Amino acid sequence: MQSIIEEIWPKLRKKHLYPEIPMPRVRETPEQEKSESEEDEDVGLEMKQKQLTINGAFVSQMKEKMPEKRVIEALLDHGITHYTFCPWDFHTHLRLYAAAKKVVGDKDLAKQVSNHFIDVIADTHCVKKRFTEIPELHRNLRKGDVEEVIASLYQEIWGMDLGIAPSKMGVKGRADIVRRLARIPYLDRSRWGESIQKFARTLKPLLIQEQKEQGAQGGKGERNPQGEHDLNHYSSEEIDQGLRDYARQTMTLSEFKDVVEDFSDELSGAGYGMEGGMGRGQGNPVDADVLFYMKLAENYSIPVKKFPLEEKGSLHPYSHCPWEIGAPYQDVDVWTSFGKIMPGITQTWTKREGKGRGKIEGTPDCLIVVDSSGSMINPRKSLSYAVLGAACATNAYLHNNSKVAVYNFSDAPMGGKDILNYTDRREDIYRVLCKYFGGGTALDLEDLMPFIQGKRKLDLFIITDMKITNLEALIGFFGQIQNRVTAVHIGDNPYAARFEKAVERKKNISIYTVKRTEDIPHIVLGKIRDYFNPTHTKKS
Amino acid sequence: MKSSTPPHKSSILPPNNENRIAKNPFEEFKTFTASGPDLPLDQIVQSTEAVMDRIRCGYEKLLEEEAKELVWMVQYNTIIKAYEVAEKYVKEISYTAEDIEDFCFALENTQRIPYLIPGPAGIYLSALCNYTNEEEIVLKLSELKTEINLVGFRLPKGKRLMIEGDTGDFTGIGLEGGELVIDGNSKNWTGAGMRGGKILIKKNIGLHTGEWMMGGEIYVGGRVRGLGNIVEGKVYEREKLLYPGKVRYPNVYY
After folding, report:
1. Whether residues A191 and A329 fall in one domain
2. Can you give the pTM of this predicted structure?
3. Which of A92, A121, A375, B155: disulfide with A87, CB 3.0–4.6 Å?
4. A177 touches chain B (CB under 8 A)
């Protein structure tokens, strides 16, 4: 069978315009396992990451109905089209699933609907755009109730006879279902969102009926002979990218959470258990809230200003200038002066003071102070700009190999606080950031001192709405320290104005307002006004 | 004067250029055709879109004529007039029940139809249902976020309209002998002024039910919140005859 694949693979690649997919493999079932794995014969194709694997048992079983070569070609056409057209990427898959879930309301049904929809699109695309054996495969596949309806849909929209008798369609309004399904513009990618909802609406009664029958029989449903559509299709990078895109597209925590929790088993399997680092842990539940902020924050990039170069004091030759009579001889460049002392020919070196980076190289560590009092949005209920901003800052420092400490507070003197020491473990940081206390707002400055003492080069990032009971104490505290401070306030209010006024002369404090997510990229961490914007200092 | 012969270019080309002509890297795709044969799907989708465009166009004209300021007051005259306008446009279109359902969902898609005004939308929807060739119309509207008013207005005898989902106010008003089934809830003034036929509400119903009802029957599977001033006809609540009978009348809240 592998030789057949090797023979047809170049032709298939050309047909599908050379997709970047490795040579498919064949999975042969060992003789001793054959008797045990009868149900294994139901599935013809397996897709893991980008590796297509043909099930030898399935092809052998189909051999009586159609030649092996044609079965393999049809299966591969189908599999390749999943990568080249639908769903294309994990984000599209999630989007389609979420749209189906809104209609059917049930996780399993939504997965079934999205799988059928993806298959219909892939097969229809293939039939329209390429010469394929897919119709012949469908003619010979074993079909359940839903598969029969889908096959008669194919008959309708492809204009081919797939062996579904019209009498079968008379049962329980199936003709009506097929007529409705046939009106969907499957090949119009821009309308897949609304199309899958219509598809789900139409197919829902049939799927519910099938689910009930299966429940009554106490068995699992029939498996998709053209391969199951799960997260195994995608590499971890694709899953990362898909989650990132989906978080950015929805911007709604509840929707993201809903979908991620439905895929929690698969995501845990793919390494999205939050303990032990992304992609390494298994068996821990996926914290959808934390994952949402993590993925959403990856869409925003905040620059961190490194420490400015400091004057070192030593002079070095920088450029040439003509020598004039009376000027000292020691700076003459004998090489460019051709060994002559003569105005117009002789050149001297102009020297400049050398620059260095000071004692600490790169980016310092950062202490993130985040307000989670009652006046702030609960990050686990809806999108919190404060947490998103803090998450972006976390990413920025961690990417620069710095460590981050978190001080999450509401009424800190009364115990409303969570403190995380300097670490580079992203999940731990996010978990503390996502914690919500509610209640009053007061800072306990004593808590901050251990984080700052002994760290001359340390950045502070505070994100709050500034409605802090002891705001004056905070202003006084910022007045004393020389560290770079990035203060972000959510929305405008008199307290924020008071804070801005009080620290306006402090060059080491930069203040930003975040009212929308679009404001976040404008934040520059560790910005020092007089260095980067000298005109600003002159004016003030 | 310029010579008619083109300038000799052989000096630019390297010697033995016949042997060195570069092969077109896309030669392999010479026979490739970007789009395959037309499938019946293309035709179905195309004709569906054409019908939807006409339905949409009719609705927009109705809005232009009847709701210029995008404000529409429910009054006897305005309803009659709007229905006449809707009839005028709907009569010219050939469509099916599925087209009506698609139109309902298109109403919520602001990119396709900019304004959803529940009153005129309901009048237009009723006209579509009344003038379709099909006798039984099933509209699966349970995922619709907006409850459309005036659904089933003047549903004629011989027609059966079944709606999966909730409907708004004035459902089935002026019913003319048809059968209206709502697989969900219905709001106030349901069946007002109906002359004959049957309204079946699977769940609950609001106030003023059957106001100035002249005939026909209203069956409610759930609770009736309040009855209107009924002239003639029957109202049942959970298979129990509510009117005529010992009714909490009119508009008693319970």
Report:
1. no
2. 0.77
3. A92
4. no
